[in-house]
From TrEMBL:
SUPFAM superfamilies from the UniProt entry: Thiolase-like
Protein name (record): Beta-ketoacyl-[acyl-carrier-protein] synthase III
Domain description: The last Arg residue of the ACP-binding site is essential for the weak association between ACP/AcpP and FabH.
Entry's family note: Belongs to the thiolase-like superfamily. FabH family.
Reactions catalysed, as given in the entry: 2-methylpropanoyl-CoA + malonyl-[ACP] + H(+) = 4-methyl-3-oxopentanoyl-[ACP] + CO2 + CoA; (2S)-2-methylbutanoyl-CoA + malonyl-[ACP] + H(+) = (4S)-4-methyl-3-oxohexanoyl-[ACP] + CO2 + CoA; 3-methylbutanoyl-CoA + malonyl-[ACP] + H(+) = 5-methyl-3-oxohexanoyl-[ACP] + CO2 + CoA; malonyl-[ACP] + acetyl-CoA + H(+) = 3-oxobutanoyl-[ACP] + CO2 + CoA
Domain Beta-ketoacyl-[acyl-carrier-protein] synthase III C-terminal: residue ranges: 249-338
Location in the cell: Cytoplasm
GO biological process: fatty acid biosynthetic process; secondary metabolite biosynthetic process
Disordered, as annotated region: 194-218
Entry EC no(s): 2.3.1.180
Enzyme kind, highest EC tier: transferase
Length: 344
């Protein structure tokens, strides 16, 4: 029988600084009313200058290990769009700072779907016997890549981190991940981008430099701000999250009405409700915490899970469906019966 990946710990962290819609309306052409009615967001947390994604990941990772009752892991998978550096990956540094020794550690870049992709990768490592226990982290500091002149993105994103520990176990245990539905459509890659900083930009800059003898390589300013074509992303997010959720439900053998909680990527409350409608689920079964944290990309699902547990929503024995959509474009879903664990 295939070894299952069983969720055995959950930890989260958000940086202390709270930024309200009113705070933003003082520096950009927006209003609390617009942000609330179009997205559902009322506030978010932004890291102070000097704090990076790895710092948030260490905090959430330490809490997840505490929740799991053991720091014994043999793999760290970190999902992020905002790594500390383009090179090296952030995960090895996080593993070292957590005192995990020489464990395998790598980053996953699937933008807002990153946490679900990371769960699937970690579960694959467990199924193959490559790992026994895996720390999976989703961590982001979008505040470091937002364009303050772009009100369509700056009001939406927040910083934070969430982590879980997965261990090898049996498929019929509470906490066992029941499979995955993952997908991508790279023809839509321009809908969500950070255009600069990669080899596409650098090779163009190098080409220009070669054409004009004497000019220095890399003279082009880094185009490092996050961009998003919101309206189109909205439409694809609803379609893909609904289809992926349905595929996952079929895989789990669950009817939509038997799902206790839908924990979707926290991008926009209108997206979450539209997906619930397409699944034929009661909107009241949708976990929503984006009002307090905004869109935290790869950290979004674990942060929502922890808030739902704290609010007395998700509890042991509940059927939980998770689904995400993000840049790439990518999407992914998974499901589990919630285990009896104490999040930190
Ligand atoms: O995490 C990855 C997945 N991401 C998502 O799923 C995000 C999906 N997209 C969305 O959530 C929504 O498209 C947004 C919240 C980003 C935008 O909402 P929208 O209802 O699609 O608004 P819009 O972009 O069509 O803009 C409507 C109007 C425009 O004005 P005009 O052209 O109608 O005069 C915008 O200029 O709202 C204006 N606008 C704003 N007004 C005040 C855009 N941003 C703002 C703002 N404050 N922050």
């Amino acid at each position: 029988m295939t070894r299952a990946a069983v969720l055995t710990g959950l930890g989260t962290y958000v940086p202390p600084r709270v930024v309200t819609n009113d705070d933003l309306s003082r520096t950009m052409d927006t209003t609390d009313e617009w942000i609330r009615t179009r997205t559902g967001i009322t506030r978010r947390h932004w890291a102070d200058p000097g704090t990076a994604t790895g710092d948030l990941a260490v905090e959430a990772g330490a809490r997840a290990l505490k929740s799991a009752g053991s720091a014994d892991v043999d793999l760290v998978v970190l999902a992020t769009t905002t790594p500390d550096h383009p090179c090296p990956a952030t995960a090895p540094d996080v593993a070292a700072r957590l005192g995990l020794g020489n464990v395998a550690a790598y980053d996953i870049a699937a933008v807002c779907s990153g946490f679900v992709y990371a769960l699937a990768a970690a579960a694959g490592a467990i199924a193959s016997g490559t790992a026994e226990r895996v720390l999976v982290i989703g961590a982001e500091t979008y505040s470091t890549i937002l364009d303050p002149a772009d009100r369509t993105t700056s009001v939406i994103f927040g910083d934070g981190a969430g982590a879980v520990v997965l261990r090898a176990g049996e498929p019929d245990e509470p906490g066992a991940l029941l499979g995955y539905d993952l997908g991508s459509d790279g023809s839509l890659k321009d809908l969500i981008t950070v255009p600069g900083g990669g080899s596409r930009q650098r090779s163009e800059a190098a080409g220009e430099a070669a054409d004009s003898a004497g000019s220095s390589v890399g003279g082009r300013p880094a185009d490092s701000y996050f961009t998003m074509q919101g309206k189109q992303v909205f439409r694809h997010a609803v379609t893909r999250m609904a289809a992926s959720s349905k595929a996952m439900l079929r895989r789990a053998g669950w009817e939509p009405e038997s799902v206790d909680w839908f924990v979707g990527h926290q991008a926009n409350v209108r997206i979450l409700h539209a997906v619930a409608d397409q699944l034929g689920m009661d909107r009241g079964r949708t976990v929503v915490n984006l009002d307090r944290v905004g869109n935290t990309s790869a950290a979004s699902i674990p942060l929502a899970l922890a808030d739902a547990i704290a609010a007395g929503q998700v509890g042991p024995g509940d059927r939980v469906l998770m689904s995400a959509f993000g840049g790439g474009v990518t999407w992914g879903s998974t499901a589990l019966v919630w285990p009896d664990i104490s999040p930190h």
